[in-house]
Amino acid sequence: EAQVTQNPRYLITVTGKKLTVTCSQNMNHEYMSWYRQDPGLGLRQIYYSMNVEVTDKGDVPEGYKVSRKEKRNFPLILESPSPNQTSLYFCASSLGLAKTQYFGPGTRLTVT
Amino acid sequence: GENVEQHPSTLSVQEGDSAVIKCTYSDSASNYFPWYKQELGKRPQLIIDIRSNVGEKKDQRIAVTLNKTAKHFSLHITETQPEDSAVYFCAAPRVGYQKVTFGTGTKLQVIP
Q1: Fewer CB atoms near the end CB (10 Å): N or C, chain A?
Q2: Which residues of chain B have a CB within 8 Å of the CB of A25?
Q3: Do B100 and A56 touch (CB under 8 A)?
Q4: Are the Cβ atoms of A45 and B6 closer than 8 angstroms?
C-alpha cells in the first residue's frame, strides 16, 4: 500500500530535550516536505527536499533541522525544542513540486 | 515571497446549497493549483487540482476555476452534503523557489 508514515504520532517533551520525528514514504517520491499546522495559520512549510542530499529552508525553518540520506526517509530534528514549537506536524511527499502531495498522519507535539 | 490568501475562513451552508471558496496568489509563475480537504483529526488529502493551461475542471460535485490574469482560483462544491464538512486548503507552488505555500484554510460546515 502506497503511504507516508510518521512516528511518533503524539509526543510530549520538555524544553531543550532533543527529539526526532521520522517520516518515510514508499512511493519513490523525490519531493518531500515538513509542515506545521497551527490554528488560523494553515500549513506552513518548514523544510523541503528535492532529492537525496538536497534540502532547503521553507518559510518557518528556525529551530528545525532535516536530513535526506535516503530517498524514502526525511526526519525532522528539533535540537532544542521550545514551547513555541508546540504544533501539529505533517510530513508530505510528491513526485515533484507541482504534483499531488501525500501527507503522513501527523505528529502532535507538545513542548512544556 | 509568495502570498496565498484564502477566503472565507469559515463558511456555513444548508445541505443542498453550493459553497465557494476563493484563493488569490502572487507568484505569476505558479502553474499548479490544488485543493486539499482535511476532515477532523485526519491528514489533508487532495480533492481536485488544476493546471495553468486550463480554466476549469470538474469532478462530480466539485469544480475548480482558474483566472490567471486576476491570479485567483476557486473551489466550487454543489449540492453540499454533511460529509463535505471539513477544512479546505488551497495551495500554490513558488516555482522559482521550489516551495509550496498553502492558504490559511476554510472551515466549511454543512447544516443538515
Answers
A1: N
A2: none
A3: no
A4: no
| A3-to-A6, A26, A101, A104, B5 alpha-carbon distances in Å | 10, 6, 11, 7, 30
- Residue A28 Cα, gap to closest chain B Cα (Å): 19
Cβ distance A42 to B1 less than 8 Å, yes or no, reads no
Q: How far is CA A82 from CA A13, A16, A85, A86, B54, in A?
A: 9, 7, 6, 8, 45
Burial of A46 (C-beta count, 10 Å sphere; 0-12/13-18/19+): buried
For residue A56, give the C-alpha cell: 532547503
Q: Find the mean pLDDT for residues B4-29.
A: 95
For residue range A66-88, list pLDDT tens digits in order. 999 999 999 999 999 999 999 99
Cα–chain center distance at B108 = 12
Please give the backbone phi and psi of residue A68, each rounded to the nearest 5 degrees, phi first. Answer: -140, 80
Residue B1 has pLDDT above 60, yes or no: no
Three cell numbers written together for B63: 469544480
Contact A3, A26 (CB under 8 A): yes
Identify all chain B residues contacting A58, using CB atoms and an 8 Å cutoff: 99
Q: Give the three cell numbers for residue B81.
A: 452534503
Question: What average pLDDT does range A16-44 have in this prediction?
Answer: 96
Q: For residue B87, list its beta bridge partners.
A: B38, B107
